Task: inverse folding
């Protein structure tokens, strides 16, 4: 059973930076897709960034140019570098991965941006 564990969330001032980490355990395979989603209470979960198996990337328009998704040295670790954070980035951030046909979610890490 694959388990995803996120870390790196916290409180940061607007304009600041945070780096989220997502580590997958329970598998020796490389992921098909690893993504970061975020959710604000009362709203749908939205895709923030995706990293494909060939390290191709996709970003939501709202974070393009500010966020960077990358793979760690350990191939089942993914980072989300978040720069120039603004109040609208406040959300619970979730790691998502796909291994073969199966999908997995982490428990989420809260990011709060203050003015």
Result:
């Amino acid at each position: 059973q694959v388990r995803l564990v996120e870390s790196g969330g916290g409180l940061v001032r607007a304009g600041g930076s945070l780096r989220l980490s997502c580590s997958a355990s329970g598998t020796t395979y490389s992921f098909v897709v690893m993504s970061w989603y975020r959710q604000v209470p009362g709203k749908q979960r939205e895709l923030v960034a995706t990293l494909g198996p060939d390290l191709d990337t996709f970003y939501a328009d709202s974070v393009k140019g500010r966020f960077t998704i990358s793979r760690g040295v350990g191939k089942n670790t993914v980072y989300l570098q978040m720069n120039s954070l603004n109040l609208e980035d406040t959300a619970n951030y979730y790691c998502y991965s796909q291994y073969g046909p199966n999908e997995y979610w982490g428990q989420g890490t809260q990011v709060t941006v203050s003015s």
Remarks:
- DSSP finds no helices and eleven strands in the chain.
- The mean pLDDT is 94.
